[in-house]
Design brief:
Two copies of one chain form a homodimer. By secondary structure, chain A is α/β, with parallel strands linked by helices. Chain A has 15 helices and eight strands. In chain A, helix 10 links the parallel strand 6 and strand 7.
Chain lengths: 362, 362
């Protein structure tokens, strides 16, 4: 079993130890922000408009191994496949129950899903991402659901799919006064930091919110420059922890917004860990440890899953800095490794097979 | 613990035995059929139009102890409260996780709920209650969700809230060739059998479906004269059983449509029991045993919960043949009695307290 402890290794090891004997279930939170349609912001879709359909496609793919609402699997403009391929292969291995939470999708997926009365987020340049009432509703509904689901497992894994989510994370962290510039990841190998900063600064200017106000009411900050997924994830964590379960946040630098939101709502962080990929940890264009360490002592654990020997261009691209993370890929892969004591190459083989199935269906 | 075995007592006792040591979770399926707005068909609402809002109110009340979407608790025209009062008091006692499944609500409840892409059912007099494709979708989504949720507990309780549901049950059973006339219950003390039969016969005439066709494809029969809740419940059961869990169908004579649907889809019935109230068992205007015994060997177990000593008119009315069942009241009460070895009067006291809280909030 190849696992990487990137931050707070002792707590990370304890977390892995409890995970080993834990009953686990997984939630994948999907939603959209119109921010993803700004050209250049997101490659989580074949073109800017298509990014709005990616979360729906990801969710359907997790359930059925194919997308049913439209005739396309989410890819980058270059055809690099969604990380949901990793997630699905790991879930098939794990055979754990998983559910999709709709925090505000552009298109409702054709699967059974948890509805938390979500909304699609506006372009954050407006400084008015969501109505405050909607944010409260999403948070409270997610918390209520989290409380109930937290009674059903020792550990709940939570992943996400929201194109544009790293940009909203940057905005949210800056609103709260964190040093986040040039630290946020991207699905692209060429992280468009300067474009993101420009978008975010326009949003922050229009939001007219002081750091103090944002820290006193992080849901207000989310309503100004956040997105529905960060709100739902934080609400879920709040509820799950209330029911005394552990949480593995399965995602990359985006998870810093969830943790910051929880911290400034005075929710304890000690039952939380982040599970991600080595592609995030080793990314030279972002700095997950530099982000999380500003916020709280949340261990970061990564799968060392590696596609450098893959026969497929689409997977090999991950080794060249594309995609890196998403749809809970890193965390779900990590859990499957921990549960089955799998080496990274064993897991990579499983995922290759899943990918073969996917492309043969085309 | 006072429990009544009304049908297949030996299997019933075995079911109770496994329930005692079972982990349990509960689902409440809500939905609407426009059939409930035909004057005289349903008293599950202050007036025929109001019956469309009852499932939403019931679901919100289960979560919050009050209705949030509108300013009224579901009652009969005489002010007799929804059986959700019994359900909520029992759930508070049990402290088990429960979820609401929206099979097709007229108004989306302001709670986190499971969405199975449901639809509101048409007036069954049209012989065209739902599009066939929608019925398939509801069934398949519910089955998928059932499979996942079935991994999380040994026994899943499933209740329902759909005004007009006994009328659609009558139509569905007649479509399948069962002897169901005058055997279906009603929330009214004065069961409007003849009105129901008239409505149902109009629907069956317009449906133009032979008994053989209906038995070969029960989902088609449901699409003609059924409702979304019976479809979702059957799908849930199918999935839950596939994951090897037991099912307690928490409801009255309506449960016969769910069991018939499953039987004619060749789903095994041996892990299912019905949990209901003594008000259903002892009702002289309906015959649950006469219905179920035609379909399959599914044990019927009832709580002997009794409100004859209640200080409240609204609860005492249950002893005079009003309401009787709904929102999984009987089954949920039964489980709380079994788990805590409660006598009927202990449980009645708990419910009185819950009812006091409810009316003091007004």
């Amino acid at each position: 079993m190849d696992v990487m402890y990137a931050y707070m290794p002792e707590s990370g090891e304890l977390f892995v130890k409890q995970l080993k004997k834990s009953s686990i279930l997984a939630l994948y939170v999907i939603g959209s922000t119109l921010t993803s349609t700004i050209p250049g912001i997101s490659i989580a879709g074949a073109n800017p408009e298509a990014t709005l359909y990616t979360p729906t496609g990801d969710a359907e793919y997790l359930f059925y191994g194919k997308v049913v609402s439209f005739n396309v699997i989410p890819t980058t403009p270059d055809g690099i496949p969604t990380p949901a391929v990793i997630t699905r292969a790991s879930l098939e291995l794990l055979n754990i129950p998983f559910f999709v939470v709709n925090a505000g999708c552009y298109v409702r997926p054709k699967i059974p899903f948890i509805d938390v009365n979500g909304v699609v987020g506006n372009d954050i340049r407006t400084g008015n991402a969501m109505k405050y009432d909607d944010v409260i509703k999403i948070y409270e509904n997610s918390k209520l659901f989290g409380e109930k689901i937290g009674k059903l497992a020792n550990t709940v894994l939570i992943g996400e799919s929201i194109p544009g989510g790293t940009t909203t994370t940057l905005a949210f962290l800056l609103a709260l006064g964190y040093d986040a510039k040039y630290k946020i990841s991207s699905a692209s190998a060429y992280n468009p930091h300067d474009l993101k900063i420009k978008v975010v600064e326009e949003g922050l200017k229009n939001a007219k919110l002081s750091i103090e106000e944002a820290r006193n009411d992080p849901l207000k900050a989310a309503s100004k420059v956040g997105d529905p997924v960060m709100v739902a994830m934080a609400g879920l964590v709040d509820g799950i922890i209330k029911s005394d379960a552990y949480v593995l946040l399965a995602g990359g630098t985006q998870m810093s917004s969830v943790i910051a939101l929880l911290k400034h709502k005075n929710v304890g962080l000690d039952k939380i860990a982040i599970g991600t990929t080595k592609w995030i940890i080793s990314d030279r264009n972002s700095d997950i440890v530099g982000l999380i360490s500003q916020i709280g002592k949340v261990p970061i654990i990564a799968t060392t899953l590696d596609f450098s020997k893959s026969e497929f261009y689409g997977l090999k691209a991950y080794e060249n800095g594309y995609v890196k993370e998403g749809v809970g890929a890193g965390g779900t892969a990590l859990v499957s490794q921990i549960k089955f004591e799998l080496s990274s190459s064993d897991l990579a083989n499983k995922i290759e097979n899943e990918y073969k199935k996917l492309i043969s269906k085309k």
